[in-house]
Amino acid sequence: MSDGRLVDLRSAGPRMVLEQWRRWEESTPPWVRSLEAWTGRRSASWIARRAAARTRPPLDRIIVSIGNLRIGGTGKTPVVRDIALRLGEQGRSGVILCRGYGSDRTAPCIVDLHDRACGDEARLLVRDTGWAVVQAADRKAGYRLAERITAPGDIILLEDGFQTAAVPRHYDLLIVDRWELAEGKLQPLAGWTLPWGPYRESAAAARRAAAVLVEITDTSVIPLETVFGQKVYSFVRHVELAPGSRPTGPYGIVCGLARPEGFEQSCERLCGHPPAVMVRFDDHAAYHGGDVARLRRLGEEHRLDAWLTTAKDGVKLKSVWSVATPLLEVGLELTWPGPHPTELWTGTTGA
Prior knowledge:
By secondary structure, the chain is an alpha/beta fold. The chain folds into 2 domains: 52-236 and 336-346, Rossmann fold, CATH 3.40.50; 242-329, Rossmann fold (3-Layer(aba) Sandwich), CATH 3.40.50. It is 31% helix and 23% strand. The chain has 9 helices and 16 strands. The protein has helices spanning 12-26, 30-52, 76-89, 120-129, 139-148, 260-271, 289-302, 311-317, 343-346; strands at 6-8, 62-68, 94-98, 109-110, 132-135, 155-159, 171-175, 178-182, 185-189, 211-215, 231-240, 251-256, 277-281, 306-309, 327-329, 331-335. The strands form 3 sheets. It has a 9-stranded mixed beta sheet, with helices on both faces. Strands 1-13-12-14-15 form a 5-stranded parallel beta sheet, with helices on both faces.
């Protein structure tokens, strides 16, 4: 955006990479196409071999992985949150195992909501679900801790685990962000794979999934299965503010996301008018006193009635917020026009 409303504080390196990926996708040089195909085949072969070598999952617990093909911004955390909440409504309990993105802590730990050394998404999941959350850079070590603190019959939700080989699982749920309909069935799509683009694997990797999850906006078009034969579960995102808190005057948006554009557009639709200023930080930004001071100055300059932010940013910002302008967290809820994916292992089909 070049209209002066955008304050982009993201690091130069990631911004340059994203811009290069965009250029290659729009017009790919032959040498990039050849190298992408070669590295993509090697990566796919390596991931497939690791997946085939996984140990058998335990018989007394259910392990469910929620992952994707693209790095960042496809809704893994909201889906994990929604599944944990749905299972809680059904009287089921368990543990969420995540990497702890944005945290420098490497040893496995049980996440404390108020511990700023823990990852933002991990703290958010503790706050919103009430489940125990294990954070571990080493997934195998994290899994051992998750096993120790769960009981027979419990469920372990493995966030961002589609490519993880160290943890066994009963079900792989794959979120697909690009797809098309082929004779009424969902055909997964992807773009250039790392390091030439933002995808970890090609669309063919969707064959490994037990089921595919897709975000939809048109509920009249709900694919029931993929071209590979798996069942498709469709969800719709809803953003919301607390009743009576929607700003009617100038407001700002602050977030640290891999793809902030979607959140910014959602805020504009929610408020009914464009923001006065949008501030973008790096994904999983820690937010320090200098960042808050900068937001304070921007708020005063634009005479803001409120700042809007995401739930995961709110978890971090609220603990250091020292600005008179209110910080409003934009809630995100999912609805499932059809069955819910928990039916795979619970037999409960209610939408």
